[in-house]
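Worked example

This section walks through a single chain of length 442. The input is the sequence exactly as stored; nothing has been trimmed or padded.
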Amino acid sequence: MTIRTLHQKIEDKTARIGVIGLGYVGLPAACMFADAGFAVTGVDVKPDRVDLINQGQSPIEGDEPGLAELLTKVVEMGKFRATADYDALREADIVLIVVETPVDDTDHKPRYAALQSACRSLGAVLKDDALVICESTVAPGTVDGLIGPTLEEVSGKKANTDFYLGACPERVMPGKLLANLRGVSRVCGGSTSETARAMVSLYSHIVEADLDAADVITAELVKTTENAYRDVQIGFANEVAMICEANGANVWHVRELVNKSPFRNMHLPGAGVGGHCIPKDPWLLAFAAPDDVDLRIIPSARAVNDGMPLHILKLAEKALASHDHSLVDARLAVLGYAYLEESDDTRNSPSAILVEQLEKLGIDHMIHDPWVDAYKGDLFERIGGCDAAIIMVKHAAYRDMDLESLKDSLRTPILIDGRGLLDPEQVQAAGLTYYGIGRGDI
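Given that input, the structure is written out below as tokens.
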């Protein structure tokens, strides 16, 4: 079977699809391809997740509109099943690799243990003429430099002769998984132009936005560049916020007026950047730079954004001082532990950086998050005896909380707004001392 034959099987939906990794990206993608009419087999290393999926139950607990219902539907239709056994992929015509690709906390280099393991396991069962697509975000050059050679070594097959390679990095975020899969454009990078065209045909069954054919390196570069761009812009916004604080200004008003000028798009400042993508992808892009390129902007933005939770702690220290309290003797309430509102995803959470610092300093604290199992519970009961509440996540529960009840529950009436979530005048009207990111005017 040639790539042209596979292309025809994609058109008539007889191609069998395998998905390696059934997390925030792989699971919704598998469900959508199954709902489009393809037979889909998902592989995941976590047996408990496999069991839940085969029962039609979503292992993703955040607010994901439509995902649980879609999963139940495709499992009951018999179009999608999950397994921990790679042998189930022997008949797969197309395999999507959607596994974690973290970077090391110290040297910021990619750590591809999961990716290498997936490639070796897939290589042992890889079907002739199969198309392997990497949806994981990787450093530019990884598909040709790691995935292809690993598959060739284990399978004994040759890329672009016996099997085909592609990269189509995901562009989703928790809370909008299905909507992003349908509505956000994708870059279909193929190892040959025919492969790229076949990928466009494949993704056209689930994506309603633009699908751009490209080569593999371009697809890898686009994904890492777009997230590095966001990180740099957020870092800039955070520095402006700190300048506003020092000069008695309101960063939110400054941002509004800046963005009235054509071609300006100042991003939102905040208590830190989390998730699986933005804290990691700039380092993946940087990894592709040769040694003689002196990178400055990307590492600087990463340093600014990683430092924002500690800046929020400084705001708490100032607020406590205004009440003649010291930071070391205070008990702090950290509101939100997920990295994103209405999500249970805690990957690279800025709150984790804050909590780590509190523990290092020996500062008493508690954590609340309405979406994360370990920290659920009645907010006002849990913050009793705390000297300050620090909003780290824009959960609706915090936006809509009763401020007078918050004041009555706290030992010292202090609110630190790390996300610009609340109206300072309303907070102060409830009898709370307000300190917020970029609010030097309060």
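What to look for: The first strand starts at residue 16 and ends at 20.
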